[in-house]
Design goal:
Blueprint (H helix, E strand, L loop, with lengths): L18 H17 L9 H8 L3 H13 L3 E7 L8 E6 L3 E8 L3 E8 L4 E8 L7 H21 L3 E9 L2 E3 L4 E5 L4 E5 L13 E5 H12 L7 E6 L3 E7 L2 E3 L30 H4 L1 H7 L25 H13 L3 H25 L4 E5 H4 L1 H15 L9 E3 L6 H16 L7
Parallel strand pairs: 3-6, 6-10, 11-14, 14-15
Antiparallel strand pairs: 1-2, 3-4, 4-5, 7-8, 8-9, 11-12, 12-13
Helix pairs in contact: 1-2, 1-3, 2-3, 5-12, 7-9, 9-11
């Protein structure tokens, strides 16, 4: 899905099938087996050898490489499942981490996760990025990332690399945002190297909804291996998971649910089309229809802290006002949310029929508004795709607002597990 934009330790080219290829493959096999161990389980070298089919001598040599690279650590003695003298257990090194980052229309965010996916630190700051130049936005995110990185290093945690999620079409190989209509960006090549300078794996660029869909796949307690994830922010994004794998299409741009046409004679969308789902189910569309219209804000400026901000000046304030109106039984607010749910159902019904998917996961404001959105969504699906997406297959995100961060960070870890030789000394 993505490639690092600045990695060190890249191996010299070798002939296919060489001893170097075999060792790199075995290195990934061993690290992958350790990474898949249940929480609290510390496999010994002998257990890893038994699970992978490699010899104990080979596993011992590969484990030494992984120890030298700092990816794993030895921990205690493991007497379980072995005869004779207990072996030394190994686990992923908790002192190594990756940074997940996100740029969205009205906020920037960063989170530090360890190699097992546990979120260690997280920070979100409201910032109006609409129609702001990419440079200042990336610079603000770099400052936030530096703060979290410094906090991690103070605890002895080394950041190996990072992933950045943005709400738009991306070209990860060049670090380019091809089009992000709600940010006002077109063909913007981001200075990814400035986000985490000096890290060995660099920073990788992701689509925000795809990253959140991957996080949902990784962290949801149970569920189908096939689902469409719907991300609700100012825009509406989508991620397709088929056979427990992200389906992004030939160019990585599949799943743009927010730009499925649901009102052919409707409003012009930020993408240039007409009648897209985003025009009736995006945050701005819902706030406007409900009569909750925020005060004007200067683009590119950090928003005031919630403790002292005037009403209507931020996403959180507008959303809080909408939720209060819904709880009070306000007809305008209820109608606006129901309208969004209806058209969301139209888009999901078309997607479900086209891809033979029968589950949908709601994220972003769709999850927050789930109590009021679900009835209209369920009715719409029953009307336009009867029996295709039953009510019990409509679920809310299990990762919440951290989804894009966790997905971006998790993808970087997955790439590392598949190619740990990138960090060998």
């Amino acid at each position: 899905m993505a490639n690092s934009t600045a990695a060190t330790g890249t191996p010299d080219p070798v002939a296919p099938g060489s001893m170097g290829d075999v060792r790199r493959s075995n290195l990934a096999l061993v690290l992958g087996r350790i990474a898949r161990s249940a929480h609290g389980t510390h496999l010994t070298r002998a257990q890893v050898a038994a699970a992978t089919g490699l010899t104990k001598a080979s596993v011992s040599s590969l484990v030494l490489d992984l120890l030298d690279a700092g990816l794993i650590r030895e921990i205690g003695l493991n007497p379980q499942g072995e005869r004779g003298r207990p072996g030394v257990g190994v686990e992923l090194n908790p002192a190594r981490a990756v940074m997940g980052m996100e740029i969205n229309v009205d906020y920037i965010a960063a989170g530090l996760t360890d190699l097992s996916g546990t979120l260690l630190l997280q920070e979100t700051r409201e910032r109006d990025n609409r129609n702001s130049a990419a440079g200042p936005v990336v610079a603000s995110l770099a400052a936030l990332a530096a703060e979290l990185r410094g906090a991690g290093e103070a605890q002895g945690i080394q950041v190996l690399g990072g992933g950045l999620a943005v709400p738009g079409l991306v070209e990860d190989r060049t670090g380019t945002v091809i089009m992000a209509p709600n940010l006002g960006w077109n063909s913007e090549t981001l200075d990814l190297g400035s986000l985490l300078p000096g890290v060995p794996l660099g920073t990788t660029l992701f689509n925000e909804a795809n990253a959140a869909a991957l996080a949902e796949l990784r962290y949801r307690p149970a569920g189908a291996a096939d689902f469409v994830f719907v991300s609700g922010e100012v825009g509406v994004g989508g991620g397709l998971v088929i056979g427990s794998e992200l389906f992004a299409g030939p160019d990585g741009h599949a799943g743009e649910l927010g730009h499925i046409v649901v009102q052919p004679e409707g409003s012009v969308c930020s993408c240039g089309g007409t009648g897209c789902l985003e025009t009736v189910a995006g945050q701005d569309a819902i706030f406007t229809a409900a009569g909750i219209i925020g005060d004007s804000r200067a683009t590119g400026e950090a928003l005031p802290e919630s403790a002292g901000e005037p009403p209507g000046t931020s996403k959180s304030e507008s959303l809080a006002r909408l939720l209060a109106a819904l709880a009070a039984g306000d007809d305008g607010a209820a109608t606006a949310v129901a309208r969004a749910g209806h058209y969301l159902g139209v888009a999901v019904a078309s997607t479900a029929r086209l891809l033979n998917i029968s589950s949908v996961v709601l994220g972003g404001h769709f999850a927050i508004l789930g109590e009021w959105l679900r009835p209209a969504l369920t009715e719409s699906l029953a009307r336009y795709a009867p029996g295709k997406v039953p009510p019990e297959n409509i679920s809310l995100s299990s990762v919440g607002e951290a989804g894009a961060l966790l997905g971006a960070a998790g993808s970087v870890v997955r790439s590392l597990v598949e190619a740990p030789h990138r960090l060998r000394p």
